[in-house]
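Input record (Table S2, row 497):
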Amino acid sequence: MLDTKGYRVGIIGRPDWKTDKDFLKLGRPRLYFGVTSGSMDSMLVNYTPLKRERAKDPHVPYHSGIPDRAVLVYANRIKPLFPDSTIVLGGIEASLRRFAHYDYWENKVRRSLLLDSRADVLVYGPGEKQAQEIARRLDNGEDLLGVPGTCVVRRELRAGFSVIPSYEEVSGDSAKFCEAQRLFSNRRQLAQAHAGRYVLQFPMPEYTTADLDWIYGLPYSRHVPPGFSEFALARFSVVTHRGCIGDCSFCSLALHQGDRIVSRSEGSIIEEIRRLTRHPEFKGHIDDLGGPTANMYGMDCPAPCPEGRCLPCKKLDRSHSRLIRLMKRARAVPGVKKVFVRSGIRYDLAMESREYLRELCAHHISGLLKIAPEHVSPRVLRLMNKGRDRSAEFRRLFKELNRGRRQQLKGYYMVAHPGTSEKEACELARHLEKLEREGERPVEGVQVFTPTPMTRSTCMYRTGVDPITGEPVYVPRTFAEKKAQKWLLEKSGSGIA
Ligand code: SF4
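Output record (iron/sulfur cluster complex):
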């Protein structure tokens, strides 16, 4: 993207952080070092929810090739080597650690990554506009203060900023931690004190359909370098939109990509698919046509309100009509044999359109549709902000629409989320047992809740309080209890590995 704008860009992929060698490879950049750990937080990549090192896990050994707290490690390697260079942090790890945050792996509140890394500026959210603006300013010798979608550290608090509780306050006081949680927003100028200095957040720039069309319309090589084989499965994927209106408490997507949908134009997506068909290694399969939640394409807000609560909004177009049209056009592109939809769907929203589900099942899945009811207990679902359990209704509809076809429905469930005592865990286990007895094999995966930075659920985990209602929340914290909850589901015979 920067290259298209006339800048020269060098990439040092997965540098060896134990020595300086890789960091010296390209010399001193004229404008800046951009540091990211990739599309997931390095601690999530390197550890299981029970804090076992994935690399040492006998069941799923996985060597990520990146260090723990990769952004911090890389930035701290660069700083002494190039003390005068500008360091820009970005990616999901930086984005969600922009303010003081609870770190599950250390079980403590950590400072903003900006302070610990000594970087000059932190980009949060998708960073294309920010990266360009930072390059332009540095090229012109301008200050980096005030770039939309970034945070910086300054000694003075500036006018117009809403002050959220300080690092010192959120570290020691649960009520202050909850207060900070309630104030997080990508739309506000926010300031948080850390020992007399302020982390200043400038609101996210607006990303429009035209922006996304331009970004995804660039001529990416789709080349998967050696050692990055995990990308091969998504090599010919097509992104249709950004953002999610689901607002699940355990998910940080809204504070990264945004809580409104911005969709690409149909023309831009179809053009990208046409280009893929000309790729020498394209075999006719689009690996995924989707976004954070596949069936939110086209649900852009027609008249954005200040806070954005799209899912319950009466004005939201739930017809899926834009998506249905896109799916039909995508699979009709000459050279395309199959367009898969592998991104998750919000099943409750999908139920609003039988036509969408019919299209999806008939043409875009291969024998299996995965949904994420997460739980059945009304109390847990309320804390997750997932609405009531409608999975039985969905199951009936799925069966009806797939009569005569061999299609299966499987679900993802979460154990040990705040609010899940033994009672709620048993409720879920009994529900799954019942489905099993009725001849369903309902479970695709069970995950143990992981408290990741900046989510409401993490706030509940840290404080034992629901930050929205102020009610106390039961929190399963010990490994023994988390394992027991998982074991209950395994015992229920639902085929969980
Ligand atoms: S629907 Fe999915 S992407 Fe959206 S908030 Fe919920 S978990 Fe996150």
